[in-house]
């Protein structure tokens, strides 16, 4: 009989914990399955030559993109990740829900009028940020 009482007490205790957890999840205090969202976009960099027509090898084009990595940081400045855009497909990165700053290194002449940018990522959502980078070459 003592084992039966202990078993019932344990069952009641477990049911109570389950009820508390269920109420907490439904109240929004804990986000269940917060998942990730996506930041995606195309990047254009140019001009890459001082005169037209401009013929640049694929390797040189890839190097131009690699020299301008996209930094994604928290609003307090902590770097979350850095991605390099592809000349043909742009960039895509999965992020936890939250608000982020998106920027590129500021070097010499040129830059981007779109950056720095603030984006808010929601679970399961996609935010598109297309970026045009002016190299300053004239």
Topology:
Elements (H helix, E strand, L loop, with lengths): L1 H26 L9 E5 L1 E4 L11 H9 L3 E5 L4 E5 L7 E5 L2 E6 L13 E5 L4 E3 L2 E4 L4
Parallel strand pairs: 1-8, 2-9
Antiparallel strand pairs: 1-5, 3-4, 3-6, 6-7
**Strand runs, count:** 9
Enumerate how many helices there are, as a single number.
Answer: 2
CATH superfamily of the largest domain: Immunoglobulins
Largest sheet: 4 strands, antiparallel
Q: Indicate the structural class.
A: alpha/beta
State the distance separating the first and last CA atoms.
Answer: 91 Å
Number of domains: 2
> Uncertain regions: pLDDT < 50 for 5+ in a row?
21-33
Name of the level-1 CATH class of the largest domain: Mainly Beta
What's the overall geometry? elongated
CATH third-tier fold name of the largest domain: Immunoglobulin-like
Helix content percent band: 25-40%
Query: What percentage of amino acids are in beta strands?
Result: 25-35%
Task: Label this structure with key terms.
138 residues; alpha/beta; Immunoglobulin-like; 2 domains; 3-stranded mixed sheet; elongated
Model description:
The protein has a four-stranded antiparallel sheet, with no helix packed on it. Strands 5-1-8 form a three-stranded mixed sheet, with no helix packed on it. Residues 21-33 have low confidence and may be disordered. The chain has helices at residues 2-27, 58-66; strands at residues 37-41, 43-46, 70-74, 79-83, 91-95, 98-103, 117-121, 126-128, 131-134. The chain contains two helices and nine strands, in the order αββαβββββββ. The protein has 138 residues and is an alpha/beta fold. β3 and β4 (79-83) form a beta hairpin. It has two domains: 1-32; 37-134, Sandwich (Immunoglobulin-like).
């Amino acid at each position: 009989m003592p084992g039966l009482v202990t078993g019932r007490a344990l069952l009641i205790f477990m049911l109570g914990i389950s009820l508390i957890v269920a109420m907490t999840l439904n109240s929004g205090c804990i986000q269940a399955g917060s998942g990730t969202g996506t930041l995606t976009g195309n990047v254009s960099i140019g001009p890459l030559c001082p005169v037209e027509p401009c013929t640049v090898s694929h390797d040189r084009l890839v190097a131009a993109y690699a020299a301008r990595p996209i930094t994604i940081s928290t609003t307090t400045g902590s770097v979350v990740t850095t991605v390099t855009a592809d000349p043909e497909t742009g960039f895509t990165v999965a992020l936890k829900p939250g608000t982020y700053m998106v920027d590129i290194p500021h070097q010499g002449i040129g830059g981007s009028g779109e950056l720095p940018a603030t984006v808010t990522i929601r679970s399961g959502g996609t935010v598109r940020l297309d970026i045009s980078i002016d190299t300053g070459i004239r």
